[in-house]
Design goal:
The structure is a single chain. Helix content is 82%, strand content 0%. With 71 residues, the chain is mainly alpha-helical.
Length: 71
């Protein structure tokens, strides 16, 4: 029997290569999503820090005026 003429083997090879292609595309898509997620987390962290700095300054001003800080 010649393996190059076996239709079932041919279909299995095609299925395997299709699955490998899907897997590679999924890995690429996941890595791109991770990059976007990291950028989003860094951006949100920056915004939180800026907001926290503003609140801290306001609290310091309230303390200087001998007033209760508003949190």
């Amino acid at each position: 029997m010649n393996i190059y003429e076996d239709e079932e083997l041919d279909r299995k090879f095609e299925e395997i290569t299709d699955l490998m292609g899907d897997f590679i595309l999924d890995v690429i898509r996941m890595s791109l999503n991770l990059k976007v997620t990291r950028k989003k987390i860094n951006y949100e962290n920056l915004i939180f820090r800026e907001l926290n700095d503003v609140r801290l300054e306001a609290a310091k001003e309230d303390i200087d005026r001998k007033k209760e800080p508003e949190f």
